[in-house]
Amino acid sequence: MRPRLVELVRGSSTKLLLCVLAPVAGLGVDPSLLINVFKDFSPGADFKGVSQVQGFHDESRAYLFQGSSRSVRVPEETAQRMLQKLRGKSEFTVAVTLKQELLNSGVILSIHHAEQRFLELESSGQKSEVRLHFQAKGQQTHTEIFPYTLADNQWHKLSVAISASHVTLYVDCNRIYERVVSVPVMDIPEDTSLWIGQRNSAHGLFKGVMQDVQILVMPQGYITQCPDLNRTCPTCNDFHGLVQKIMELQDILAKTSSKLSLAEERMNGLDNCYCERTCSVKGVTYREDQAWTDGCKNCTCSNGTVQCETIVCPPLECPDGSVPAYVAGECCKNCQPMCLFTGQELVEGDRRAVHHPSGLCLLYECKGHTMHKVQNSGDCPELNCPEAEQVTVTDRCCKVCRGHDFCAEGNTCMEHSDCLNLEAGASCSCKEGFRPLRSDNAYCEDIDECAEGKHYCRENTMCVNTPGSFMCICHTGYIRIDDYSCTEHDECVSEQHNCDENALCFNTVGGHSCSCKPGYTGNGTICRALCDGLCLNGGSCVSPNTCMCTQGFTGKRCETDIDECKAGRSTCANDTVCFNLDGGYDCRCPHGHNCTGDCIHDNKVKHNGQIWVLDNDRCSVCSCQMGQVMCRRMVCDCENPTVDLFCCPECDPRLSSQCLHQNGLLTYASGDTWTENCQQCQCLQGEVDCWPLSCPPADCDFTLVPEGECCAHCVSDPCQAHSVRNDITKTCEDEHGITRFSGSSWLKHGTECTLCQCKNGHICCSVDPMCL
After folding, report:
1. What are the angstrom distances between the C-alpha of 590 and each of 4, 593, 644, 700?
2. 306 CB contacts (<8 Å, ≥6 apart)?
3. Mean of the per-residue pLDDT values for the chain?
4. What ranges make up the beta strands (E) of 125-173?
5. Which one of 26, 184, 393, 592 is most buried, counting C-beta atoms within 10 A?
6. From CA 310, how far away is CA 142, in angstroms rounded?
7. Burial (Cβ within 10 Å: 0-12, 13-18, ≥19) of residue 740
8. pLDDT tens figures, 429-452
9. CA dist 242 to 1, 44, 236, 239, 504, Å?
10. Residue-level pLDDT at 592
11. Span 352-365, mean pLDDT?
12. What is the separation, in whole angstroms, between the first and last Cα of the chain?
């Protein structure tokens, strides 16, 4: 039941709120956005292993999927009509109502072409997981695993909502997981297959009942299952809050109106005033429309705002005897008198020193097209560095020490340009976030990272340019995660996360990430302790630098043997004597006595040689051996007809407990494992479950999955890479001089079949043979 507002405001002074309950009308969905599988496809009697049954409700058809030999594939024409709605989309929701058999592992829905899984939803009862497989950029299959048990023979409403790089899992109208993933690519070929209740004819067989299998091309499709989650329909409490807000706003409006009236009266008196807006730059005030030159820019004051344009230097054609050169205080080069000296072109004021092998040095200066000798000003100053560290420079006779500060002697580097000391002189370099306006880097301008797309601002932020950098400003109503990201709420603070108790939670856009605390290792959702030293004598690390010792040992590293005889921990009967041993003890009969060898276990007498099963673990067997109780896991003897199949599934001889390989030619017994298509598969009591092989992380920009292998390898040649960790700051320039960001692709000019791609500053082109 949902509230319905009958009347909110009547007249100008009377306000009435009447909140009543009314049944929710069915949520209408545009048919062009809905793929209702069981409405357009009826797998009933025409398909072996499928039958129509009573569902969770009576408003739509439900089907029971059973048996190990069936082939429920949607006819090609119907499948293409369905999949056309999904092609090219990156926002959609997969929804289903189901009741899955206990411990069954099977595929709910699979859209694949050959070995490419474009979209597949799977539930594993063996591992208590929900798995989402989809195609990501670079034709890579991405798998997202959600720990959750659906296979419990109970009805569940399941929906997985994907919005670009954001995925949310809902079960029974509860949001269970929310994560940031790779963006799905739904470039679905025409002859793609759509399977229901299985991946193909021999693998991933779902067992149970399914109803309302739908794909909605919208990220909020879960509200068709759970209308109460649709917050566009407010509750009575929402209406009470709205009315209170309206009353507050009316009070604010009345006060604001009074202030505006007073301000309007004052502003009317300003009609006869003239207010000129000025501009202040570097301590100088400029009037409206006043122009000036600032370095390599022509600037104007317009309505109180400084507007500057970069000076475009005209081409110079200098007469004979002169060359273009920069002049102090001017942006563009001017024609300057030239001197030729030892094959070099020098301009007015340039100096060159000539060093003779005898140690004599002569200094010349360019004046009036001629090199004139400069009178020696005296002896060179004494240097406080060894001779090996003394450097000869070209514009003076005296040597300097390596690391000499040439910049301190004077330089031409202007604002936003730093002077750098080189070995034999000084040079200008633009500061970070600025680009040069001329070839010597003396004048630099700010780079607008926001306008040029060279920023890292992510969702829910606005990029604002600043001198030499940029800022990411959160949109109204969002909170900051880091310098580049903002989100609606903080899942870490609200404790809506799945991080291990020994992990740190970091809020991210639309979700969160987990990282194990110092002293622990793992993926964040599961963390285990690390110990600096080894835990000795079979001990295990349970918390940082804390060992859990095996029976018979104690101490920080389990280095101390426990004396079970003094501590009263032995099971020796009264007629034997306890002797301590490393990690244990022995029960010995005194010389001249006839001992029974019995044991004491759980305050009960166990006779020597007696064997029994533990009350709390049917798969563990204990025995009494000369006063000592020895326990171990049950040894599976498949030749024994009374073997416990619960403890030894590999001994199950029943055909119903065997599994068929995906190729239909091999049979596996319960407990067998194998690898198929980069997945680890296992047969348990007739059920096959497969999960992706775990691969070590490849920490590099370019990776390749070699043919016949499953895991990515780092490669140095970007053109061989299947996947690229794109860096938007590393751009490419195509044949037209157009800047391309990493990850972008284009057709090479003048061709129809050559596709080029920018990979972190490298251009890789290839010819599509199917296009020729």
Report:
1. 90, 6, 41, 70
2. 279, 281, 286, 299, 300
3. 82
4. 129-136, 140-147, 155-163, 166-171
5. 184
6. 48
7. middle
8. 999 999 999 889 999 999 999 999
9. 20, 51, 10, 5, 38
10. 63
11. 87
12. 62
3-state DSSP call for residue 530? Answer: coil
Rounded to an integer, what distance in angstroms lies between the CA atom of residue 113 and that of residue 190?
9
pLDDT confidence bin for 582, thresholds 50/70/90: confident
**CB proximity list for 691: less than 8 A, separation 6 or greater:** 124, 127, 129, 131, 145, 679, 680
Residue 346 token pair: 């020098």
State how far the Cα of 601 lies from the Cα of 622, in Å rounded to an integer: 10
Per-residue 3-state assignment (H helix, E strand, C coil) for 74-96: CCHHHHHHHHCCCCCCCEEEEEE
Length of the chain: 772
CA separation for the pair 512, 177 (Å, rounded): 10
Q: Which residue has the tokens 């989809």?
A: 134
| pTM, to two decimals | 0.41
What 3-state DSSP class applies to 246? helix
CB of 59 within 8 A of CB of 36? no
Q: What is the 8-class DSSP label of residue 251?
A: H
Collapsed DSSP state (helix, strand, coil) of residue 567: helix
Dump pLDDT digits (tens) for 450-497. 999 888 898 888 999 998 999 999 888 688 878 888 877 777 877 778
Indicate if the pLDDT at residue 712 is higher than 60: yes
pLDDT of residue 230: 61
Q: How far is it, in rounded angstroms, from Cα 687 to Cα 700?
A: 39
Task: Say which amino acid occupies 500.
Answer: D
